[in-house]
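Lecture 7 notes. Example A: sequence first, then its structure tokens.
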Amino acid sequence: MRIAAPWSVLAFVVALAGCGGSIREPGTVAERAVRVRADGCHPTVDRLGSGTLVGGGLVVTVAHTVAGASAIEVTTADGVTHVAQLAAIDTALDVAILRVPGRAAPTIEHGSLGPGDRGTSFAGAGEALIPYEVRRGVTLRFADVYREGSYGRAGYELAAEVDPGDSGAGLFDDEGHLAAIMFAASRVSRDRAWATAISEAEHLLASVDDHSEIAAASYRCAP
């Protein structure tokens, strides 16, 4: 069941910007959650997704939210909206890396999940919680973001209720390490969803340097 994030979870995040003090770098799972907004693929409606600050001003999210966008914004857990740039994208694996200038965070370690593991994913900028249980770790076969071809990826089948805009939310292990990225929900079963293992994004993260920038609009919009 999807849960609105309680005030107690987010209050300390909002308070970081008060009293003229400096904003503390994001460190906890809740502070790393971001809302991704992409403009340009629909004349009246922006595409919404979720993402995770992974360090160095970078955000991991899903490609199907940002491919084809003319502008991308990221709202962090303190309520501040930043202009973001596409730094790397893999439309076959549905993973994208965004750069958020001036938004530093400690580099997060990567982890993994196993069958029966339970946790909570933070959707958007932490405004909603998605409880989940890992049903199994599998090699997933899905079409790319354009619904073409068939591509394998390491990932997880989940018992979770996922809504539009949750794609890109991070899943973390018991030690707070980023383990996976939510990317799809079943159209048949309300409590079935899938996540891509973070190991599939490592080649993209390794390819990004201080000058990496891609024109998102050079890609087609996902259906």
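Example B, a different protein, same format:
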Amino acid sequence: MLDLSYFEKLVNGAKWTFALTQPFLPHEYCVFPKADIATWRAFAQFIYDNSRPEMFGKAERRYLTIGEYKYWSMEYPPFPTIILINRTFADKTKYSRAKTFFCTFPPKRGAQLTDSEGPK
């Protein structure tokens, strides 16, 4: 059975990319490796089944907190075309620092930030 500890390992080993197109809403996304699409769809379902609803503007989204991040999908079951999962800091103070950092010093497209370069 796929449980929280399984998905913690999955997200900790995934390649996350900062969403450069929305620096005013700092978040990262992970595009599913084609070989693991079934696992990531299972994660999307896990998020949906174990999340809580929150408002994002006028839309309701379902978020699941794992560690220091909140995860969400833009789709709902059965996830017919899902290819990515999003995440942002669960702690809004980190979110604010990230927002300030990335709006002030946006990284170049394709740049990968290290821990020392990212928001503190």
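Note on Example B: The CA atoms of residues 23 and 30 lie 16 Å apart. The radius of gyration is 14 Å.
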